[in-house]
Amino acid sequence: MRRKIQFSPRKEVSFFVSYAPDKDIKYFRALANGEEPPVKNRLELFDESSGLTFEILKALHHQLSSKTEVTIEEIQHKWENFGLKEEKLNKLLNLGRFPKEPSFSVNWLKFVALGCGELGSTIKEIMTLFSKIVTKKPPEEIPEIPFSTFSLIYQFITKLKEDIPEGHINSVINFLSIQAEKQDGMINPQNYLLSDCPSLDYVLL
Hints:
Elements: H1 21-32, H2 54-64, E1 69-71, H3 72-81, H4 86-95, E2 105-107, H5 108-119, H6 123-134, E3 145-146, H7 147-161, H8 166-181, E4 186-187
Antiparallel strand pairs: 1-2, 3-4
Helix pairs in contact: 2-5, 5-6, 5-7, 7-8
């Protein structure tokens, strides 16, 4: 039997976060150190089991996206500033097969994709969330990203699942590469929702 393509089960969420004085301390400490404070752009649903949300992941990307490679120590520092649980970070690092040594550097976009895996239940959802987070387009516009970035992350995510045939992955990449050629090398979620696009989520018929 094929394993279900899912990073984590859906979790109950609540609208409000309980007040935590240490978050104020982290906010002002970041300012004192000349760092960008841990602030989200908008109020959103809060996942009490892990604390990770779309807006927090987006804020983390905003703070670390200037670097292609980011050390585990840098990620841990920002992660803690947002009050996220250490066990959730360790889970993501294990899932990505990254060592936990503080000096080890990881591809930042791959880490963002792992975070999206906590928020989406299918590869299509994960890639859509990823596009919305890393796009340079404003929120009201379609979230396009370079095809090279899509290809890198899609292959990274699918190969972690281990049960998606290489041929299917290549079919997706080949189809979308043709779409990207028509769009100045860019890809957006509408492209992989086309009826003739191979499903990003491999379905065993």
